[in-house]
Fold this protein.
Amino acid sequence: MIAAPAMLPAPYRVRRVRRETEDTWTLDLEPEAGGEPPVFAPGQFNMLYVFGVGEVPISISGDPTDSAPLVHTVRAVGAVTRALCALRSGDAVGVRGPFGTAWPVSEASGRDVLLVAGGVGLAPLRPAWYELLAQRSRFGRVALLYGARSPDTLLYAEELSHWRSRFDVEVRVTVDHATGEWGGHVGVVTGLLDSAPLDADDCVAMLCGPEIMMRLVGAELRRRGIPAERIYVSLERNMQCAVGWCGHCQLGPELTCRDGPVYPLARVERLLHVREL
Amino acid sequence: MKGLESLLAAHPFFAGMTAADLDLIAGCAANARFEAGEYLYREGEAADRFYLLRDGRVAVEIHAPGKNPVTILSVGAGEVLGFSWLTPPYRWVFDARAQQLTRALVFDGACLRGKCETDPRLGYDLLKRVAQVMSQRLETATLQLLDVYGGTAAR
């Protein structure tokens, strides 16, 4: 039974905004009534409501071990997301959530963990990354591979630099093309897999990014011996009610708002190849 | 110091090649070293070489007058650089610039072509290896052209 408040946005205020790239902003939100936002699990999303404009599903991108404030990274691609990115400190926004399934961070305990992110797909993976870093000793080798269009579209650039300076994780970045002083890797994210040696027999992979990217990375990881049951993807569909009532986000038998967005690849791989879905 | 044959045998590009074939190919090879910023080749020059990178990283660039060069691919240790030595008119299509100190095995393209003409079995083996890399590069280029990180559902 879903409680009625799941459909009722709670009023929040924007505490801080940070520009990540030309079209992507990170918003820190706090409940208007005070107190802390609800606890969330890495990979879950909220429905953010810009009053008078509309509502969109946005993954939570903050640190789950420090839930105040509520952090969302938003790319301006449509009317609602443009309105979200135009919000400034003190503005009001409605929040429903958190909803959906989570990255299997706890289940990965004792294993190698590989995170592969593409573009703004780093945002939904960042809470899982924070949790991995916070509990680093529980895991084997830990790696983050991140692909973006160009150096100026990399999210969380300062944090990336900090993560790369750690000795206990592998962080690799690639871009599709670059100019100027970029001295890093240029090419697709699958080209980074060789730089993150992991034990395929004992590794959990979490992928988030454009579906084409996840399909190809998933296929390459399977070729390297990681079973589809231990490869997880986050799917983006037209989520509207967020609680499995309306069916807008249906993918075959799956309602991605309720059954996802995080799935084992084994469960959805076949669906991703059905062109009509 | 390792001999060229052992360096060749250790490079992923030549994995599984017979010792006799490696000996033949080693006759066309030499060690090379490039400082950061140094060009391995430039667009339009005669493409008479072929590189197997051992260390470092090389940016493959395209340039347009009045603009900064655009890096379209980077090639690192264990990878192959340069295919224009294999097909007429044997001219480089892009620039290749070392992004950091880079060590490579460099092959004389004409020498390699000569050995392949003389020994078609060796030529076929080499061509299959080159074709596999070219196929991967083509896939990569296609994905980059798709600009998968650029678009998403507009909401």
